Request: fold
Amino acid sequence: MANFYLDTPALKYHLNHPLMRRIVELKERNFRDKDKYDYAPVDFEDAMDSYSKVLEIVGEICGDIIAPNAESVDKEGASCGDGHAYYAEGTKQNLDAVRSAGLMGVAMPRRFGGLNFPVVPYMMAADMVSRSDAGFENLWGLQDCAETLYEFGTEEQCARYITRVCQGETMSMDLTEPDAGSDLQSVMLKATFDEKENCWRLNGVKRFITNGDSDIHLVLARSEEGTRDGRGLSMFIYDKRNGGVLVRRIENKMGIKGSPTCELVFKDAKAELCGERRLGLIKYVMALMNGARLGIAAQSVGLSQAAYNEALAYARDRKQFGKAIIEFPAVFEMLSLMKAKLDASRSLLYETSRFVDVYKALDDIAKERKLTPEERQEQRKYSKMADSFTPLSKGLGSEFANQNTYDCIQIHGGSGFMKDYACERLYRDARITSIYEGTTQLQVIAAIRYVTTGAYLTKIREYESEEVKCELASFKERVKQMTDKYAAAVDAVVNAKDQEYLDFMSRRLVEMAGYIIMSHLILRDGTKASELFEDSAKVFVRYAEAEVEKHCSFISSFRQEDLAGYRK
Reply:
């Protein structure tokens, strides 16, 4: 029997980070639930043991059910008929398995039927589910929408809807429209208040909606008559039980075929306001998207893990010229870089998740009582770090997933181009990760202010103060030299005082910051668990060094007037 948690020791390593003690302390509020719920932990050790045991269950379901179903789900896909979407048979089996195991509402409070898990173990579950079948992660992972409902809905709404999610119902976030993709302030789905029925009515079309025939929807709609921008948008809850929404079609996609991506038609669909009017895009969607982007980062890591595993197994088994191809430098160099990118992106994912955990727990505590000055300072610190690290984790993690699945096919050679091997499916599934929930280019836009304000550089200097084992000391020195080059490049671009020039160079500056941060994180991991990460640390630092040098060279040799040659 396969177990995706037990066969990936990196997960247990990241679960046992020192900051987890503070996260559990905040999340469990002095373990006050222990007298109400028999499954609530009584102390820190009990909580950590609970996380590990549940992750073992997730790992077993992934290895024994979801992964074996992935190929049939990919071939069958979802279907559309009678105004509804229908899952593939394997997807139904997957949903039955996670529901029976109580794995819906993982991060929700126990009073609603959830497990009250922090973000870190929840993202680990998403990591494993994505390794099994990235398309199924898009269904299971959308339970994260309940977090936005929990943050901004009323207690009565939470009791009605989150309880249903924890019992196994599915969710979706209905944001994009035919004329409003990344530009969500152009959303025009109309929300009007029905005085007679004392409810809202939704009319219009939504497109590219993942799991669009879900049980409970969070819908972005225009509630303010005559408005054209984000200030006229509000968030609504639509319950499928009330009717009024039809699935007009399911998109014929390249990958993640088990997840129905729907075009929805709203016809006087009954809905209720979530939170306050006018804050739908400005506040609620931003919170929703940050959670979704972290989920895509986890999905990307899971895909990278699957690609590396497939490539490694094939390289060990495939023989050419009398020996396994893994013995050829051209192949083991590719494998070592795949592993380094996987380990570095996973380190960044869980560092980001820990930051999110601390500030979200403090946000939740602030609903119950006034935070102390020290807690407010801690909240601001971790909120800023979560905001700055999330676009790096999503942006770079998804790009690495695309690169790793590409290299996985390359190692398979001609066989990798055939549908007989899983790598072909992984390659198709990975392609969307750098597009949805904000393209890589939008992640750069979100991250660049942390470059120009010096926030990344400050955090990098903080990482520099950490000790590394003597075998990695020279590599840490190389990262310091990279940082000096990065700082000089930032100064050169910012001091030019040309916004278009800064925008043009933003991707290179953000990538450099990300590579340097990831280098520090993987050096830390290589110091604490050399048997797992030391080799990857050495490989990744060399890779990052070359990338930083490349970007610095481009910036230093580029003149502002050269921009004219790029405009077409």
DSSP finds 17 helices and eleven strands in the chain. The longest strand covers residues 261-274. The chain has a mean pLDDT of 96. Residues 373-412 form the longest helix (40 residues).
